[in-house]
Task: structure prediction
Amino acid sequence: MHGWTGNILRINLTNRTHKVDHFDEEFARKWVGGRGFALKILWDELKPGIDPLGPENKLIVTVGPIAGIPAPNTGKTVVAAKSPLTGGYGDGNLGTRVTEQMRKAGYDIIIIEGKADSPVYLYIEDDRVEYLAADEIWGKGTYDTHDWLYKKYGKGAGVLSIGQGGENLNLYSMVRSLEGRAGGRPGIGAVMGSKKLKAIVIKGSKPIPVADPEGMRKLGLEDLRKVGEIDKKTGWSIQGTTGVLAWCNEVAALPVHNMRKTHHPEAWKIDGERLNNARVATYGCPNCTMRCGITILDHEGHESELDYENIGMLGSNLDIFELDQVASLNYLCDDYGLDTISAGAVLAFYADAIEQGAIKGDFKFGDAEMAKKLLGLAARREGEVGNLLADGSLRMARKIGHNSEAYAMQVKGLEISAYNCKFIPGMALAFGTSPIGAHHKESWVITFELKQTRRDSYGPEKAAKVIELQRIRGGLFEFIVACRFPWIELGWQLEHYAEYFNKITGLNWTLDDFWKVADRIYALMKFFWVREFPFWDRTRDYPPMVWFDPKNADTEGPIAGKYLELDKYNQLLDYYYEQRGWDKRGIPTRKTAEALDLKQEADEVEKFTKLE
Amino acid sequence: MSTLDIKITIKLIGPFVNQLGFSEKTMSFPDGVTVETVLSSLPLDPKRPKIVTRNGQAVASGERLSHGDRLAISPLYSGG
Result:
């Protein structure tokens, strides 16, 4: 078997023991890596109904066959667990040196079980695993934690850590790596914190098993150079992802005022042009030649690296149009280890609920200083407000009541990223059907929707496009584990990834083989949710009700008077389910499951609900 | 400027700002000008995929513009 080591490092923090398990080629071919591996292991090994923050949950760190190999944007690792935020399957990917070091240490998968009796961090070097006291870094932010670990182990080590958010079980806390970014929006940092695990440090020295090492090395390095050239030619990195902000503002898709508004006259103050002008450094993940992170100085003078999601959710969605203040909020989220998207959505929901009179509080839209204080309270779970904010917008709404759930901007408990779909049905469907809760990473159809379809259409072509993108973005890139940016932003063709995969594994796969794996993973992710929530119905694939409310329609601008229509959205969902071979509840049928080699999994889910 | 000219505001997005050297500009065009004509008057790579919106709505290249229209020209972003 080439491309995979077949090794699973299984660590038990309760007993401070570890062993190496193995997977075979059939498992590798069926699930490939990353999200596929994590999902299948969590499905097989977790009992339904377990407490996501209890010792029974398992934290999975995993890579894919392409991960860590020098080739375009292969520095990504997947972290996964049962989500404490949503109660369903949760994962995320992040750029990190862990990717390469983990592969060199000889592992495709690390499973972390149990719970330490006191704060620890793990040091993994090839076959050696050490359980070390984290007393000196527990309580510290991710910047200080990483610095402390780099001083001890050198800058070449791969490090994953949590901040105070994860330690205090904030439900939208992330896993962070200063060598790249953060991942695990559905509270994977809280799972790590619940295990009293502050950090993982990895170093490896073994060769990564590649079927054609010389061919892959030449091809990968050449393609890295080509991607860098395309980036320079197109100028994409000048604004990186933040060019999207001005566009969203033009087309009425910007999150403003808890997504009650879609554009704002002051949006230019926080757009990609202003960001590029304020740039003090450029930041990228390992194996990347199209570095998208733009670093500026925040209000307090820290270096803070921003992208579109951060600015949309911590800026315009909170009516904060001072770039240095947005950068401050972003810096705090990074240091506390909080998801910037959910943090922005939670604060906006809180301000909105206060404005609506549903709850009393001192926070108003536009108040950056109070937002900073609230982030600290949420990260540390300080007081009543800190505990309220730390639980995410859906739980907040259920505590607050007064029909506030209608404007808690989330799906399945995960907050919606920075695209306001008040009148973008296809993108609303993408959020609704995203398999970890609302996330843009699975499918982003706005440009297709606006350029190639009628904005007000709810036709099957939109469902087809959502599925096509889910196969690529939520499938391929999440299981081979590579960054999707060369493809989505620079047009780097998908066939390149099949070529890398085949050179690494020695197989002869086509893109169609990838799509079958992607569909299998999407079906099993849905089964995971259904097993946790057996009375599953399609309303769980609905976006927030406020988008269907005529009273919430814009009163001016490009989409004045427009809103999503629920009966038409249901039709769109039907198209989506039909094309996927899922039933009217949104559950894969037995026939679909068996065609995807999921008979055993279908038998298991039928213990909880009858399949059609 | 002829009395028959109309004014169109051009808003550039992302790297187009650096390529053309301006972010937003109001320019005069003959009455009845189409989106395609406006685009071809700008030194943009015609082969590069773009999305063009008129007053916030996607617009076809043959569509005629009106006085006071806002035309936003963006590369095809794919959403991070």
Q: What stands out?
A: The first strand of chain B starts at residue 5 and ends at 12. The beta strands of chain B are 5-12, 24-30, 50-54, 57-58, 70-75. Residues 5-75 of chain B form a domain with the Ubiquitin-like (UB roll) fold (CATH 3.10.20.30). The mean pLDDT of chain B is 92.
